[in-house]
Amino acid sequence: MRPIETLGAIAAGALAMYYLDPELGAQRRRLLAELVRSGLPQERRQARRRLRAYHQATRADPQSDADLRDRIQTRLGRLVSYPGAIDVSVNEGTVRLGGRVLAKERDGLLDQVQRMPGVQKLVNAMTSLDDPQDMGRRAPGRQGTAEPPARDTEPQPVP
Description:
The protein has helices at residues 3-20, 25-60, 62-79, 103-114, and strands at residues 86-91, 94-102, 121-129, 156-158.
């Protein structure tokens, strides 16, 4: 038997003796059960409070909105092929993505932005294009070639 296995066996035996002791084992098991029941929910409540406080601070601070917008714009280069075609605006933690994106990259982009700290709500106002060549065309209302019909025409909140 290797030394690590020996130590594991000794530790398991000691733990069993501690909790299965005929005189004090029942009291020790009750104490352990109470500690597990009362300790874990309290930690979850504290974590939720910290998270809520962070989100409230983010919501109330215009500088946090600007920081969030900058973080999203910086990350766009790793998430999509044409980061300059996407407009990002943030207001009180609500992120609005506009502009054009390749259809095959849209869902991944939305998922990654939704997971970023500080994002309260995500609105997808992007136009999805299937063909990368269409990314170079100008949008309707601007001079130049008109953009092909969009698959997503109205802004939609992302669940």
